[in-house]
């Protein structure tokens, strides 16, 4: 017996969620003795998973750090593997691949680095959740859509908070610039007044004016 189909809107959201989870893989060439980094801006309490593969070439090290410089993941001679972590606060995570190269005059070919990063709903393993809670396929899809909705709401709340912070910063900066402009004008007026009185006394001392 087949499970009932999802309504059109829910089915579309499910497809978009699945596509988002599968379309974040990227690849790039890493020359010998080079370092390339990728940055990901994340809010608080977001689970992040990554899967990488480095093909050929010399030894390549992988480092994942947060905006405070704390090491979240480290792997020397990284060829293929996975990593996962959860953010404690608003972070700008940096993922760096560094190729050390080899001594000698011969040409070492570039390495192909493939990286797939997932965060939030994308990073959750719903197959394990379904097995642990004995959920049906429809219930798994509904759980995924519920989590996706909550994640989107939290993202909007985070963006609103960031917008308010930026607005407050702009207001504070504008106020400081305004008062600084007034202070600068007062300083110029005071300097001009002092110059007038100084030159007047100077010319009187030289008997050039009465």
TrEMBL record:
Localization per Swiss-Prot or TrEMBL: Endoplasmic reticulum membrane; Membrane
Membrane topology: Single-pass type I membrane protein
One Pfam family per UniProt: EMP24_GP25L
Listed GO CC annotations: endoplasmic reticulum membrane
Chief subcellular location: endoplasmic reticulum
InterPro entries, sorted: Emp24-like (IPR015720), GOLD_dom (IPR009038)
Domain of life where this protein originates: Eukaryota
Transmembrane region(s): 177-199
Signal peptide stretch: 1-25
UniProt KW Signal keyword: yes
Keywords: Endoplasmic reticulum, Membrane, Signal, Transmembrane, Transmembrane helix
All residue ranges annotated as the GOLD domain in the record: 35-144
Family assignment from sequence similarity: Belongs to the EMP24/GP25L family.
Protein name: GOLD domain-containing protein
